[in-house]
Amino acid sequence: MDMNWKKSSENKPIGVIGIGSFGTAISNLLAEKNKVLVYARDEAVVEAINETHMVKNRKLASSIRATTDPELICDSCNVMFPMIPSSAFREVMVRFAPYLHPYHFLIHGTKGLSLNLPEGKDLGNIKKIRRKNICTMSEVIMEETVVERIGCLAGPNLAKELLENQPGATVIASRYNEVIREGQQLLRSDNFQVYGNSDIIGVELSGVLKNIIAIASGALSGLGLGDNAKGLLISRGMVELVYLGKAMGGSTKSFLGLAGVGDLVTTCNSTLSRNYTLGFRLAKGEKLTDIVADMEEVAEGVNTVKLIKLFLESTDLRAPITENLYKVLFEDLKVEAALQYLMKFPIYTDIDFFD
Amino acid sequence: MVIFDQLNYINLTDDYIKHKYEPILPKKAEWPVVKLSKSRKEFIQQVVGSSVGNIKGLTGNQLQTLKEELEITLFKERMRIKQNSWAVDPDDEKEFWAEVKAALLAMDADQQIEDEKKKQQYFEVLTRITKRYAEEIASNFKHSHYKMTRRIVSFGFSRLLNTSRVKGFKSIFSNQYRLQDKIQIIGETDQIRELASKGTIVMVPTHFSNLDSILIGWTISTLGLPPFIYGAGLNLFNIQIFAYFMNALGAYKVDRRKKNQVYLETLKTYSREAIQFGCHSLFFPGGTRSRSGNIEPKVKLGLLSTAIEAQRANYQKVDTEFGKVFIVPVTINYHFVLEAPSLIKEHLNFTGQERYYNESDEFSTSYKISKFLVKFFTKGSDISISIGKAMDILGNYVDSEGNSRDAHGRSIDCKDYFMVDGKVNVDLQREEEYSKKLGKRIVEEFHKINRVFSSHLVAFTAFRLLKKENSKLDLFSLLRLPEEDLFLPYDTFKEACGLVLARIHQLREEGAVHMAPHLNAGLEEIIQHGLQNVGMYHAKRPLKRNEAGNIVTEDISLLYYYHNRLDGYELEKII
Questions:
Q1: Could you say which of A59, A160, A210, A253 is catalytic?
Q2: pTM for the predicted model, two decimal places
Q3: Which fold would CATH assign to domain A206-344?
Q4: Residue boundaries of the structural domains of chain A
Q5: Alpha-carbon span B394 to B308, nearest angstrom
């Protein structure tokens, strides 16, 4: 292991925390212009990266190094990209917190939500879930660490296509322009454009909420429906996304950009998307538990549907697609029945969220 | 931000502790404010140089932009002189700006001169204007005046507050010791004394009354702290005697009529340089008195950002032993705010319209001011001043040594907030975001350290009940109802008070608010106390019990004002 990185103040490596498919893609993109240090919890994975430059059949650039030591990666890097499923995010941040300082930049790529209940409460005994109980990843970072300069990566970024070096773009959202600039400098190439947005909550929520629609889109495909239905779903899904997102603190324009509409369209049309695939298989008759057990990586949409449904119970909002999807996922409602119900839903105004 | 209560947060007790506080810097020569006034000329020069430099940066050092900036300044100043002149304005104002106008015209007309030279000339004009502003702003502290003022104020206070037979000009401390019966200083008093010799304190109090400045000044003195500099509204200097006191206490002058960039930049530079110098500072982050009676729901970021800039500038220097800036929120808790009737009327007139306060000169005559003081002090009313726990410029709590701690008690090096690639650098957008975060933290702390009084409880309950009874009306229609038609049966009122009180006790347990000790008494006692005290000296009482035993109001807008003090704790859900 190259320990010299700790000492030199110039050209510090860029850290990537977590090495799932998205983490791998980002590591490779970063490795084109920078030294990269990856953190993984599993010793075997770390060894595989260092020795064979492979992780689960995906190839990593040979200059990339790995470690299991949170302290080492925090000392060696000023900028780090957490790429961890939302279910493990808080735990990892807690583990890293003692080694994180206000000079660190953390740019995460997780499109999920984290439940944050007060001490002694769980889903069984809590009366109402409020917005503060449902956290985006940047909120988790702020709660658990002293890092202030936080950013998030979002947009139509299917990992497989990124790994194939296909042309694409992403948006980096942060309240701090310097974080956006740093991300642009690190990731931009002739093949990959990087946009900026200051509304980090809105961008995070876009990435989170579109997964709900993606599951529904996969289900429609699974039922054998065509492009009309898909168009209907995506545009009504967009409306639902904007309402939910605004209620949770995002601004409308973020949902109309790369992270919103861009990611929505990509994910709703791609068999490469885990969420899409999950919906597809559900419509084909498989059980949720079987599908989840079978999938290598988490489909964030499932957890998101659960948490958003809980949140809706404490507001006056209606989110028909989410509510029906919840019943399909957790209350054994058949996909066809859910679709019928949605077609009968009495809302006829097309767009009413602009003045 | 999740606050881990037990480890670091010393619970503010509800019972004040009468202390005799020894001065922390007994030798006046060591007082930062004295050192500042001794080097007033050099300090002004530094401020001017720094401010001009900043404006150069802001205009991108472009000739055209600089010219426009000066022209806008000239225009705004001439409008101000025409529309809104005050007694304190210097006689040569018109002349000065006429000269500026002539100079700018001449420079504009001059075709011969080359750009670089022209820019220099514009900078000269800019420097002249900035110097004029800096001279006006800079405080005129004189220690002898301060001592005199302290004696007079303490004497005046204790006499007027009826607390003791004053034995002539005896020791100041014995006066203050007894004054603390009526004006209770509670909270993190030991910590602020500790930290005042470890770094620079920026005190940020809530602002409800013009009395606040005097109370805070007295508090600072009683706590044995050296005088703080603070921005007092220029209109307060219209009266000679007040000007004497303001200057004596360390005030620098803030003219809220002047909204041009050059003035604002000069003002901010003055504040920042003074904090960097080590002068403890004080300003009301709300900017002006709360018109509605609410604790400030958000704060102005202008002067707050200077504290952050000063902190960063200190980190840029190599030797920074005393360079840390501590933010200390303070709330002043009253049963009665004299200016309430006019304040709430102003608020109601302006709500819903464009936010614009015409900076009127309310205290233009000595008569009005003395009437104000006499009325307030001769009757006396419980006042308490809560000193909050000190924070760093990002709102993290600091321990007794001045070290920043996170929610888990781990130490934070504040310098890291300003670093990129191992070096401190200047990023104004970043500092703007930090200001916003600090502003939010201050509002949070205001709500936490606020002390609930019986008067707030009864006012809140009564108004909420009236609102519920007339739920079909919006706020403005409700406030237009004739007071004679409004009443609440005592039993309903008492029951509702009980519910709100219980919730306040709960919030106190959670550390979300503080309570005056009298809120531990029986419900009946608390209600009586509240009815007696709420807005007690207004011509129209906001709340009282009529002969039939019902709860009535003589002025519903005033009741609304006092009710607003408990806004922000979600108590609306109780009734």
A1: A210
A2: 0.88
A3: N-(1-d-carboxylethyl)-l-norvaline Dehydrogenase; domain 2 (1.10.1040)
A4: 4-201, 206-344
A5: 8
